[in-house]
Design brief:
The structure holds 2 protein chains of 2 kinds. By secondary structure, chain A is α/β, with parallel strands linked by helices. Chain A has 6 helices and 6 strands. The chains are: A alpha/beta, B alpha+beta. Strand 6 of chain A pairs parallel with strand 4 of chain B, so a sheet runs across the interface.
């Protein structure tokens, strides 16, 4: 059995861990509120963008010559997967959930005999995927310096993707991120962004638009922007999810630490009492033998 | 009959401006300035760098934009833009920063004609603000 001194040390160490997790929870809660706000404020932009593109693509007269970003290359050989994770750890299942989702998608693609390319955004995802899919990772982007998700970072990722697309390096692009539902629930999402997947809502194009300049030109300008917008949306959702996930993970950790302190304290008291009783018995039996 | 319509300007971070009592909006569309009044035909167009002028009952406002898309439908004008500043907030130092950035961009050698045109436009507009 551990000595009294050891127990005392352990209690102290668990207590200081508890303090850290508690502080992290507080920080995450404050950050969460901010991240959630900006995620909600960012939604109108991406929704409107989506609407306009939907209207445009429905109105486009010449489907054959539609921009490739919209209709795809016509092939389905090389898949590019953009896995978006956090740069910091200690956030519960946040990263593992995305990775799990991504990995099952990867093995599906590889089983179908298609080629796979991966871009990781955020260092944690890179760390986890490096082992199994190291040779498939073509790019690793990390925004450790920027505090909050901002549009310029998203634009950087977007232009990398578009560059690769135009160089014909892949046919289909999918992004993986966590959608923020509430503090305890984050849904890992796989969203295809190239070619644009808009099978839903095909019948709301009752209005015909006037275009200036013509549709093709607008579309070919709009689609790259849309990629960045979708990535930005994913980044916002991700950062809200990350903080939410971290908050609940740290809440759990604090509670567990509390339970552990209780248990250790009981054990400490018991063994102290045992030592006292032992000494008493020794004294009494010593006195009796005299 | 009222002559008002609704305008909504959004940027990626937030909804920038929502106004219900707008009488006229002049936007720097790609092929020239365009004034929009109530019951304009549905239109989708691009913006080039320039000034958006919003005339409304509660006062006139001007905004500087660098790019964007506008959509007008059912008397709702939506403007999506990634870079927008209210002329009120655009002080000399900020304007100088933007101008410097635009000039750098315009003087790059390897950019496409379109990008060059847009950058030149930026420089021109920013200079004219003074």
């Amino acid at each position: 059995m551990a000595s009294l001194d050891d127990l005392k040390k352990r209690i102290a160490s668990v207590k200081s861990t508890q303090k850290i997790t508690k502080a992290m929870k507080m920080v995450a809660a404050a950050k969460l509120r901010k991240a959630q706000e900006s995620a909600e404020r960012g939604r109108p932009y991406s929704e409107k963008m989506n609407n306009i593109i939907l209207n445009l693509s429905n109105g486009i007269s010449d489907k054959e010559n539609a921009p490739k970003l919209l209709s795809g290359t016509g092939e389905n050989k090389v898949h590019l997967c953009v896995v978006m994770t956090s740069d910091r750890g200690l956030c519960g299942g946040f990263n593992s959930n995305i990775i799990k989702k991504a990995k099952s998608y990867f093995s599906k693609i590889l089983n179908e005999g298609k080629q796979l390319k991966i871009i990781t955004v955020g260092s944690k995802g890179n760390d986890q995927l490096k082992r199994a899919y190291g040779d498939k990772i073509v790019e690793n982007i990390s925004f450790k310096e920027s505090k909050n998700a901002n549009y310029f970072d998203a634009d950087k990722v977007g232009s990398i993707i578009i560059e690769k697309f135009e160089a014909g390096e892949f046919d289909i692009c999918t992004i993986f991120y966590n959608q923020f539902k509430n503090v305890i629930t984050q849904l890992p999402q796989a969203q295809q962004i190239i070619p644009l997947n808009n099978e839903e809502d095909h019948n709301n194009s009752d209005k015909s638009y006037e275009f200036e300049p013509d549709e093709d030109e607008i579309l070919s300008n709009l689609l790259p922007k849309n990629i960045s917008t979708q990535i930005f949306k994913a980044m916002l959702e991700n950062s809200a999810s990350e903080q939410g996930s971290r908050m609940s993970a740290m809440d759990n950790a604090t509670r567990n630490a509390g339970e552990m302190v209780d248990k250790l304290t009981i054990e400490y008291n018991r063994s102290r009492q045992a030592a006292i009783t032992k000494e008493l018995i020794e004294i009494i039996s010593g006195a009796e033998s005299l | 009959m009222s002559e008002e319509f609704k305008i909504e300007i959004v940027n990626p971070e937030k909804s920038f401006l929502v106004k219900e009592d707008v009488l006229e909006v002049v936007v720097p569309a790609f092929e020239g300035e365009m004034g929009i009044l109530k019951d304009h035909i549905s239109i989708i167009s691009f913006l080039k760098p320039g000034i958006i002028k919003v005339f409304s009952k509660s006062g006139d406002e001007n905004y500087y934009v660098e790019d964007g898309i506008i959509e007008f439908k059912n008397n709702n004008l939506s403007i999506l833009t990634s870079t927008i500043f209210s002329m009120k907030d655009l002080d000399k130092s900020k304007q100088g920063d933007l101008l410097k950035k635009a000039e750098e961009e315009a003087s790059k050698a390897e950019i496409s004609d379109q990008a060059k045109y847009l950058a030149d436009q930026k420089v021109e507009v920013l200079r004219s603000i003074n």
